[in-house]
Amino acid sequence: MTSPSSLEAFLASHPRAILIEITEAKGSTPREAGAFMLVTENTIWGTIGGGQFEYMAIDNARAMLAGGGEGMMDIPLGPEIGQCCGGRTLLNFHLMTPALAEKLESRMRSEEEDRPAVFLFGAGHVGRALARALAPLPFAVTVVETRAEALEDLPAEAERHLTAMPEAFVDKVPANGAAIVLTHDHALDFMIAGRALARTDLAYVGMIGSATKRATFARWLKREGGEEAMLARLVLPIGGSAVKDKRPAVIAALVAAELLAAYAARQDQPSKRQVPSA
């Protein structure tokens, strides 16, 4: 996942660059309004979706660096350029300045701070695979474990906590966050999941397991005084049941897609991704 630091490093080594921004996207397009990339004479950073229209944009940016080019392009994504998306994109081009670079870095820092928090309770085979799968995605990942050795093989992006009482960390999950339960102990799984489901402000609560485990948890939850509505909010099994492959990396990929879909469904506000005007 790109970050403010990687953008800053790119600009430090490529001070002469053109910013290409999608300022309007109509119909079916490869990227949304606000997506941007940077182009220098011999390299690029980021993408606005690839394909012929991106090649056209890169060519125009390099023409600007050479003293020509256009400050705006309105590109229909149709047969005339060898694409079949059917939409239309409006692109703006700006020569990078220190002020514009500062605005981009500020925007990316804001987006990084706004990433949904995903707490993984357990760093076994699936927990580690899921931490790796989520690392390049727009999530802030925290892994909670009772075993020190389980926290060793995790991506650098993941925050990690060693604790004898992982269930207490449920209270640390920010509102709109996700709690995914994958410990080595079913009783501990149930305790963590029950505490997570007692909250109504989490976007996603999931537990690794099967239909049998769900039925067992349902009985446990009822004995503990849990309401039926709590069980309805639980995703179990995580990753769905359509794909039967149980390899950790496969389960992780399915859960990552499930999380992305869950958060996309919750987004009902205008995009925050617009690049500030130059």
Quaternary status of these chains? single chain
Report the β-strand fraction as a percent range.
Answer: 15-25%
Q: What's the number of extended β-strand segments? A: 11
On the 0 to 100 scale, the average pLDDT is 87
Write a structural description.
The model is unreliable at 269-277 (pLDDT under 50). A six-stranded parallel β-sheet has the order 8-7-6-9-10-11, with helices on both faces. The chain has a five-stranded antiparallel β-sheet with strand order 3-2-1-5-4. The chain has 278 residues and is an alpha/beta fold. It is elongated, with a radius of gyration of 23 Å. The protein contains eight helices and eleven strands. Helix 1 (4-13) packs antiparallel against helix 3 (98-113) and helix 4 (125-134) packs across helix 8 (248-266). The protein has helices at 4-13, 51-65, 98-113, 125-134, 186-197, 211-223, 228-232, 248-266, and strands spanning 18-26, 36-39, 44-46, 72-76, 88-95, 117-121, 140-145, 159-162, 178-181, 204-207, 234-235.
